Amino acid sequence: MTSPISEHASPAAPQGSTFVVIMSVALLLLLAALDQTVVSTALPTIVADLGGLDHLSWVFTAYILTSTVVAPLYGKLGDLYGRRAMVFIAVALFLAGSLACAASSSMTALIVSRAVQGLGGGGLFVLALSVVGDVIAPKDRGKVQGVFAAVFSLSSVIGPLMGGWFVDVFSWHWIFLINLPLGAVAVLMFGLNFPAHTAHVGHKIDWLGAALLTLALSLIILVCSLGGRELPWNGALTWALIGLSLASTLAFIWAETRAVEPILPMSLFSLNVFSATSGISFLQGAIMLGVISFLPLYLQIALGYSPTESGFLLIPMTIGIVTTSTVAGIYMGRTGRYRVLPIVGMSILTIAAFLMTTFDGATTALFFSGALMLFGTGLGLIFPVTTTVVQNAVPRDLMGTATASGVMFRQIGGSMSVAVFGAIFAANMAATAGLPDAASLSPAALAALPDAMRAAAAVGVSDALHPVYWIVMVLGLMGLALALVLREIPLVNRMVPKGE
Q1: For 119-154, what is each residue's pLDDT tens digit?
Q2: What's the per-residue H, E or C state across the chain?
Q3: Checking CA distances to 298, which of 104, 182, 290, 413 falls within 20 to 30 Å?
Q4: Residue 70 within a domain
């Protein structure tokens, strides 16, 4: 029986325009992903221009916060009212935020503009992945998700490099202005090739669930992003925010069991594929961001590379992701199977994390690159699986909701791991005698230190990171356990009719 919800599922694009649709949403996804990292190398220049050094972290936090909390809302609203309209809304917010960022004359204005930008960027993350489910049959989705995995990994590497280039050649304003023409072209391509729908069905929006989920996610992201800096870990306010987040989460679960059209139906967690991939997505985000967030610091302080050189040394990870995500997509397309991919991927990630526990001041570029490529190889085998298999397992009228949940869990996992690992790293660095604060250790500051202190800094950074990568290794084993219990539902080579 066809449900009222499924009548609003987005229609498939004609075959001839499918490629254009995929390329347009891939470009939008790239822009949203780049804006998570592109400001990092431009921040010193931005601060020199706008001031507000004490609010520096909010330039990152505002974007991550809003893009995470809106992900489930876009997923559900896309299921209810169609993804075409939601893409237009997300792009409008993202480009408006980009223009406002470029025009900002104070740090406060930039932070507010970044929040608006995140309101659109979070939608682009979710909708790009969901649109794939509207226009591509399940067996072939892995190939496209592999392309998107490459977009994610590429953005983490080229974002800081691009930000530095724009600052050197033009001005920091252009890291935001470049979004306008590219975003306009992408949304025009999408709008001309992804059909609109005309059905109008009444819906009861779960406003209470949306409010509670937004509150819960906002609080946990704030604690993760600001913990150890503006919020001391042992402070009363920090624990109060954590407690309120947990209470909001419990209230959200209660509200969802009573909502007519819940934002995140609790029944989805009874599906093995959904619950297992949600856990894998959480761990995947934690592992990826937990590893790469500290590698530039290790490369610059322990091994003495410049910021640009350290950026290029992260490329082997991207090569690994692009290669194996492509292979994984082809494998799923030809066989309709997927279970072996996260099993092998998590095993490789665990081995790579073990190799990273041996990093020290004498590690060669070849060994580092090999370990990082192995890490990317494991990630690439997992990336195309989590979204593809959950879209294959849930009813089509819940596809956007399920896709958004994976994005949400991955974002939360990444935010939590960076916070926790950052606290561990800072505590270990503090235990290294005679060193200045870890946050002040830049290549320039390091060069000004006496030889003995430079050597101590290199050893201190390496030793401080070892516990982080041991924990990453444990997370990899947890992901392997989830992959082993993941059910395999063969991927079909046809579009699933609405309501099926």
Answers
A1: 888 888 788 777 777 777 776 777 777 677 777 767
A2: CCCCCHHHCCCCCCHHHHHHHHHHHHHHHHHHHHHHHCCCCCHHHHHHHHCCHHHCCHHHHHHHHHHHHCHHHHHHHHHHHCHHHHHHHHHHHHHHHHHHHHCCCCHHHHHHHHHHHHHHHHHHHHHHHHHHHHHCCHHHHHHHHHHHHHHHHHHHHHHHHHHHHHHHHCCCCHHHHCHHHHHHHHHHHHHHHCCCCCCCCCCCCCHHHHHHHHHHHHHHHHHHHHECCCECCCCHHHHHHHHHHHHHHHHHHHHHCCCCCCCCCHHHHHCHHHHHHHHHHHHHHHHHHHHHCCHHHHHHHHCCCCHHHHHHCCHHHHHHHHHHHHHHHHHHHHHCCCCHHHHHHHHHHHHHHHHHCCCCCCCCHHHHHHHHHHHHHHHHHHHHHHHHHHHHHCCHHHHHHHHHHHHHHHHHHHHHHHHHHHHHHHHHHHCCCCCCCHHHCCHHHHHCCCHHHHHHHHHHHHHHHHHHHHHHHHHHHHHHHHHHHCCCCCCCCCCCCCCC
A3: 413
A4: yes
